[in-house]
């Protein structure tokens, strides 16, 4: 077990899987010679060469389409979209093609495409380089979406995505690249669709994913000093969602606060609130609460952006409000 | 004589007649209300699919369009499974999940008709990439219409294939209409093939009503691609004899009867039959025998489809995902 950064854990997972499976290749903008604009693929071009680390034109539709065609023909592509915002440029290939071909073909196709991308705000990158668009992807049957919050989960989920025969989307958070954590040297899987109870607690359940997990844990630390026990659940996968874990926790703590960086309206929080009301209504002592971004584009100026992105104090404030009820 | 062998001429002919008789039958069944949804018939354009696919190897892939029945037939598709799919039956190619716009046969390397104009073009580029990756000498073919060359996916895919020097054939079936709008209103060039050099790939203009010309152009482009020469582009000028969808020809304000009749006079099937008889590749009786044999195959396909069961509604959830997640619905 070595301590690796979030980004190095991703890189190690890709490299080890490419070593193990010659059908895996990486295709995208700047992924080869440059090693990815954030360094995600550093060193892999030298190791695997230009056939397996494919630099492409800035053509998101064709990049995803290349992955689909190669996957239908038996390869296992890693398709990198530089920013999550660019998913929208490729949405036909992603939502109409990759997600649906298996079903349209009566189940006869396999589409082992792993889309990797970089989401999240906090770098003053403004509204076209900062979005959290996972709700759009989760709405499309046929896709799986994972959003790891630790180096350990990053490597394990990337391995699971690469071994999955479905189109998967792995979203890295741009503000977490330097976060360090223990990562086993060998290959291992973190199963897609399994949440992780990061911190047990009795009084309230906080459901989060991606960078909001660490903010929620910080809020939980603050509240512990006030005698409030927060159970923090990291969803890790947002499609499929581990409803059982969330519902079991709701039945135990009777209060749920959902935290995400995406806008509040029609976000994952709405889905989780609906699921909890469907499966644990009689256990609830308060309405399911949501801490999320306001319904605006992501702003540029740090003064505005820091108001936009949920943080530990805001999460803690919502938890106190939720506990005041009932 | 120079040109394709008699065997190739007969092969092309058989593929064209299989398309024509299947499509005419499907059109009649659709008109009679015995088929759900709507269908886009390939009638009139047979020389393109048949000419291209006769020149391909079995392991060459094709991606197709919403007017895609002809491409699957030309790749050797099973007419019974096709007709069953068009009727939404459990025995169809897609188990009734896809229908007319999504017929496919991955075992034949036919990567699917596609309901999104231009949507199949990047997928063919991906298949071409897989061929280059494996150095297997196969090529992929993207079939698309003139209308698709106005959509971004086509431009991205063409540039990508050229930049990466992939073994891909871009086959434009220019039938002069994008849905109901004539091509000249939608692009400021006379010939779609003018776009090819902009991507750095050779472009060829082909008479899309002449299957031998299509076969020869494809053979040359495929040989070039197999030898590592990269992608190329063919514009095949052709025409759909029926409407954008369905079989009506009357009362179509967007095309004149004169125009339709001029193109019908170029019907690729009788023209090719005359060629075969003249070349001694086939006798008129032999041609009749082929037509009768295929007509019987089509009748058998209709019987198979009509007698096949509808999908079990409980199968609705199958096939969304591979593996254990399949059938798992969000709670």
What does this structure look like?
The complex is a heterodimer of chains A (326) and B (331). Chain A has 326 residues and is α/β, with parallel strands linked by helices. In chain A, 37% of the residues lie in helices and 21% in strands. Chain A is built from twelve helices and 14 strands. Chain A has helices at residues 6-20, 44-48, 60-72, 91-98, 101-104, 134-138, 151-163, 212-224, 243-253, 268-280, 302-308, 312-324, and strands at 2-5, 24-28, 53-55, 76-81, 114-119, 144-146, 168-173, 180-183, 196-199, 204-208, 230-234, 237-239, 256-263, 289-293. In chain A, strands 3-2-4-5-7-6-12 form a seven-stranded mixed β-sheet, with helices on both faces. A five-stranded mixed β-sheet of chain A has the order 9-11-10-13-14, sandwiched between helices. In chain A, strands 1-8 form a two-stranded antiparallel ribbon. In chain A, helix 1 packs parallel to helix 7, helix 3 runs parallel beside helix 4 (91-98) and helix 9 crosses helix 10 (268-280). Chain A starts with a strand and ends with a helix. With 331 residues, chain B is an alpha/beta fold. Chain B contains ten helices and seven strands. In chain B, the strands form two sheets. In chain B, strands 1-2-3-7-6 form a five-stranded parallel β-sheet, with helices on both faces. A two-stranded antiparallel sheet of chain B has the order 4-5. In chain B, helix 1 (6-31) packs across helix 2 (46-54), helix 1 (6-31) crosses helix 10 (284-307) and helix 2 packs parallel to helix 7. The longest helix of chain B has 26 residues, at 6-31. Chain B is globular. Chain B starts with 5 loop residues before the first helix and ends in a 24-residue tail after the last helix. At the A-B interface, helix 3, helix 4, helix 5, helix 9 and helix 10 of A face helix 5 and helix 6 of B.
